[in-house]
Amino acid sequence: MFTRDSSFSVVGITSLYLRVGEELVMAFLVLRMAAWMWNKFSTWFWDPYVWLPPNYNWEDLVPNEKVRYANWSDLWTYPIVMALIAIPLRFLVLNNLVYCYIAQAVGLRNVRHRPVVPNETLEQLFSRYKAKLPDCEISRCASVLGWSQRKVERWIRQRTAMTRITKFTKFMECAWQCTYYTFIFIYGLYVMFGKSWMWDILHCWYDYPNHSVDDDVWWYYMMSLAFYWSMTFTHFFEIRRKDFWQMFFHHLVTIALITFSWTCNLTRIGTLVLIVHDCADIPLQLAKMSIYSGHKAFCDAVFAVFAVMWIVTRVGIYPIWILYSTAIDAPTIVPMFPAYYIFNGLLFALLFLHVYWTYLILRIIATTITKGSVEDNRSSSDPSEISDDEQVKKEM
Asked: CA 124 from chain center: how many Å?
């Protein structure tokens, strides 16, 4: 027989099960509602009218025995994994085993700044003012801490030095980019040499969108997208220059272009954009490495090569050959659709960035003519441009 206490426990357990059941039912309904909303959004977002030429559906672009279409899911798996591999490869392997020794061989020293004695009062002021403490604040801190003003100023200088990135580190950053651009440009030439659209750009539009993605083009896309994902992931931890936000916008535009061209199977024009952009970055990184290592004569020569290649490819070949074809040739061969206009808009946004950077390059050329040496205009406001030897003296 049940006792009074046992009957209460049965009622309590029953009510508990009922509450749990109600919560499970509510959770199930919420999940179903979320799935329904996601399905509606996905159907709206991936509307073939937006992404594909007229009279085409996504079922028409499923890879088959005849045509290997671009697989959209590849964009969100392989490049992300490759980017996450590239980041430790760069910082843990190449920086420590290759680039640091090259930097030392060209005369750079890996100067490690001495850490400051922890001080909460000064740390709060440094977080607020950085290196530009007002004289009144220095005087106030000196009286509060019982220090001399010179001792406070020395602490601020040492704390500022801890946040600066040395030329040794900058050199290794450029070495990584130089390695990538050299490899990907050579690989791009290998891939594109036998492609019909390399020699006749109209083949980018003939029989579109029934273009098969060969294995070499697949790797070209995946490696390029992986690099720009890795640069985006690490952008806020890199050297901050004047064009910090322009470069970040450039990474996003490049990723968007690669994604759009892959999704819409515009891989042929995409490969042309990639190869035109990669070549000028090689002498650019070599010139910057020469600046940081102090080899001015070599830097001037390499920078001259870079300036010619940049102007020829970025403000010459790119708009005259590629943008002309996307804006003038394509509409006469391919039925237009909304995503294509977005893709073309991103291509022109890239051109505007080229014009801005061309302006910076021309400023550097003007400075070279007047001062007789190349300087990195983007870094002119970077406090880490102080030489490592000078910084060591200031800390003493």
From this structure: 32
3-class secondary-structure state, position 343: helix
Mean of per-residue pLDDT scores for the chain: 86
Report the chain's C-alpha Rg in angstroms. 29
Q: Where are the domains of the chain?
A: 64-107+166-383, 120-163
Contact 67, 212 (CB under 8 A): yes
**Closest by alpha carbon to 71, among 192, 255, 222, 224?**
222
Question: How many residues in total does the chain contain?
Answer: 396
Calculate the alpha carbon distances from 184 to 38, 67, 206, 259, 314 in Å.
Answer: 38, 26, 27, 18, 17
Measured CA to CA, the distance from residue 225 to residue 229 in angstroms comes to 6
- Return d(Cα 316, Cα 254) in angstroms, integer: 19
Q: What percent of the chain has pLDDT over 90?
A: 53
* Lowest mean pLDDT across 22-31, 57-66, 232-241, 268-277: 232-241
Q: For residue 258, which amino acid is it? A: I
**Distance from C-alpha of 235 to C-alpha of 331, rounded to nearest angstrom:** 37
Q: What stretches of the chain show up as alpha helix (H) in DSSP? A: 4-45, 48-51, 78-88, 100-105, 120-129, 135-145, 149-163, 167-192, 196-199, 215-233, 244-263, 267-278, 281-293, 296-312, 324, 330-333, 338-371, 388-395
For 218, half-sphere exposure in the C-beta direction (CA atoms, 13 angstrom radius) is 13
Q: For residues 248 and 236, give the distance between their C-alpha atoms in angstroms, rounded to a whole number.
A: 9
Quick check: 345 and 209 in contact, CB under 8 A?
no
First to last CA, the chain: 89
* Average confidence (pLDDT) over 170-197: 96
Structure tokens at 328: 């003038």
Closest CA to 394 of 211, 150, 167: 150
Q: What is the tens place of the pLDDT at every residue in 289-315?
A: 999 999 988 998 999 999 999 999 999
**58-72, 139-153, 246-260, 382-396: which range is least confident on average?**
382-396
